[in-house]
Design brief:
mainly alpha, elongated, transmembrane helix, Tmem163, synapse, Cation_efflux_TMD_sf, Cation_efflux_TM
C-alpha cells in the first residue's frame, strides 16, 4: 500500500501525537503521584496512576499507527495485543483500588490536605489533551482510519478524567467537604472500568481496529 504526501503527513501527525501522549503522561503521572501522595488526595493520586496506564496504552497505539501505515489490513502483532490486554487489566486494578480507598476515606472522614496542585495539573491536562484530541481526530478523518479515531476516543476518556479531577478539587475548595475528593475517586473508578471493558473488546481477534 502506497500513500501520497498528504497522507504521509497525517500519518506522521498521528504517530507524533501518540509519542507526545506517552511522554506527556509520564511527566504528568510523576507530578500527580507526588502531589497526590503529599496532599493525601485519592483523586489526584488515582489520576496519576491512570497517566501511567495511558503510557502503556500509548505504546500500543504508536505501534498500531506504524502498522496501519505499512498495511491497514495487516493483523495486530503480539506487542500491540499484549499492550491492550495489560492496559485493560491495569484499568480494572485501578478501579478496584480507587473504590476501596474512596469508601474507606468516606467512612473515616478523611480530607485531603490541599487541592491546589490538583487544580493546576487538571487545568493543564484539560487544555493539552483537548489539543491532542483535535489533532488525532483530524488525522483519523483525513486518513479515513477508524483505528486512529478510536485512539482519539481513548484520549477523550483521559480528558474526562481531568475534568473530574478539576471539578472535585474546586468543589472541595468551595465546600470544604472531605468526601468530595473520595466521590471524585469513585467517578474515576467508573471511567476506569469503562476503559477496561473497551480494552478487552479491542483485543478480540476479529477486531482489527483499536476500537
Amino acid at each position: 500500500m502506497t500513500f501520497n504526501n498528504r497522507e504521509k503527513h497525517f500519518f506522521k501527525l498521528a504517530y507524533g501525537l501518540a509519542v507526545f501522549t506517552i511522554v506527556y503522561n509520564i511527566i504528568e503521572g510523576l507530578f500527580a503521584l507526588y502531589f497526590g501522595y503529599e496532599d493525601e488526595s485519592v483523586t489526584l493520586f488515582g489520576f496519576g496512576v491512570d497517566s501511567f496506564i495511558e503510557v502503556i496504552s500509548g505504546m500500543g497505539i504508536a505501534h498500531m499507527v506504524r502498522r496501519i501505515k505499512r498495511n491497514e489490513n495487516h493483523k495486530r502483532g503480539h506487542f500491540e495485543r499484549k499492550a491492550i490486554r495489560v492496559t485493560g487489566t491495569a484499568f480494572f486494578l485501578l478501579a478496584g483500588g480507587l473504590v476501596f480507598v474512596s469508601i474507606f476515606n468516606i467512612i473515616v472522614g478523611h480530607k485531603p490536605q490541599a487541592t491546589f496542585w490538583s487544580v493546576i495539573i487538571s487545568v493543564i491536562s484539560i487544555v493539552v489533551m483537548w489539543v491532542v484530541i483535535l489533532g488525532k481526530k483530524r488525522a483519523g478523518e483525513k486518513l479515513h482510519s477508524e483505528a486512529i479515531l478510536a485512539d482519539a476516543y481513548c484520549t477523550l476518556m483521559c480528558h474526562y478524567m481531568s475534568i473530574v479531577l478539576l471539578l472535585s478539587s474546586v468543589i472541595y475548595e468551595i465546600s470544604g467537604l472531605g468526601f468530595i475528593d473520595s466521590l471524585g475517586g469513585l467517578v474515576l473508578a467508573w471511567l476506569a472500568v469503562k476503559e477496561g471493558k473497551r480494552c478487552y473488546r479491542m483485543v478480540k481477534p476479529e477486531n482489527k481496529y483499536v476500537y
